[in-house]
Amino acid sequence: MARVQARMQPERWSTDPRLTPKGGLTGGEAMRIAAGSAALRKIPDGSAEQVNQALFGEPVRVFERETDKDGSEWAYVQLGLDRYVGWMRMASLAPAGAAPTHRVRVLRSFIYERADMKSRPSRAVSMNARMALGETLGNFVEVKGTGWIFARHIAPLDDPEMDFVGVAQKFVGSPYLWGGRESAGIDCSGLVQVSLQATGIYPLRDSDMQEQTLGIDFKPAPDFSDMERGDLVFWRGHVGIMCSPTMLLHSSARDMHCEIEPLGQAVDRIRPISGEVRSVRRFG
């Protein structure tokens, strides 16, 4: 399908507390995610709500540091790709280093200590994880400062996928996780975001933000008979992707995984919880 475009409307979100550093903080220290993934939490507490998740190699800016009662150091950060703010463990971060050139193109891969599939993996990395590369050795390529990854599991950042729906379908069966952005756990708006990011489009994080900034408003027929593949369907607090004119792909908090089901069935089931479909957004 055709590449899609996002209308970010930055002025609309310039004061949203989810995207605005507290107290007018500016500047900060440029760092990157060094763990396979890192939870972004509302407060510096490992038991606090995960509001978002950052993936290996993604940029962050660190504004403040704080040590909790257990001696763990936390950082107050803003994510570089979607501007979300919150707290994450300092142990998940590293200096910014070389600019990334490649991304993980498969759902999951490993970074190994050596260019050998039998060597110990240092971490799992997920689709859209970013990395700067070094030398190539056999079927492996060096991830600078970290280890080695199977070469066919990565692609240049400037060679994006062309079909975000096809990307999203790869996540079918992945478990639902509030705030998640990877196949080990992903939520409804995370699925939309990650799938579009693989095509080189960088949407905002939450479903209400996506509803206001992606595609154009489309008024469907009462029976949804004019839906198209790639349409985004929004309810209050939920979003799904049409993977055909009749079938909806979404990360479902009811069934706790990514699934495909008839749109009409989803509409009837979701109605008592979140009401009617609030909007449909279509990409031109």
What's the quick description here?
This protein is mainly β and 284 residues long. Helices cover 14% and strands 37% of the residues. The chain has helices spanning 10-13, 164-169, 188-197, 207-213, 263-274, and strands at residues 29-33, 37-41, 50-55, 59-67, 73-79, 85-89, 93-95, 102-104, 108-112, 121-126, 130-131, 133-137, 140-143, 147-150, 154-156, 181-182, 185-186, 216-218, 232-235, 238-242, 247-252, 257-262, 279-282.
Protein topology:
Elements: H1 10-13, E1 29-33, E2 37-41, E3 50-55, E4 59-67, E5 73-79, E6 85-89, E7 93-95, E8 102-104, E9 108-112, E10 121-126, E11 130-131, E12 133-137, E13 140-143, E14 147-150, E15 154-156, H2 164-169, E16 181-182, E17 185-186, H3 188-197, H4 207-213, E18 216-218, E19 232-235, E20 238-242, E21 247-252, E22 257-262, H5 263-274, E23 279-282
Antiparallel strand pairs: 1-4, 1-7, 2-3, 4-5, 5-6, 8-11, 8-15, 9-10, 9-14, 12-13, 13-14, 16-17, 18-23, 19-20, 19-23, 20-21, 21-22
Description:
The chain has 3 domains: 10-95, SH3 Domains (SH3 type barrels), CATH 2.30.30; 102-156, SH3 type barrels, CATH 2.30.30.40; 164-282, Alpha-Beta Complex (endopeptidase fold (from Nostoc punctiforme)). It has 5 helices and 23 strands. The chain is mainly β. The protein is globular, with a radius of gyration of 19 Å. β2 (37-41) and β3 form a beta hairpin. Strands 18-23-19-20-21-22 form a 6-stranded antiparallel β-sheet, with helices on both faces. A 5-stranded antiparallel β-sheet has the order 6-5-4-1-7, with no helix packed on it. The protein is 14% helix and 37% strand. The model has no long low-confidence stretch (mean pLDDT 96).
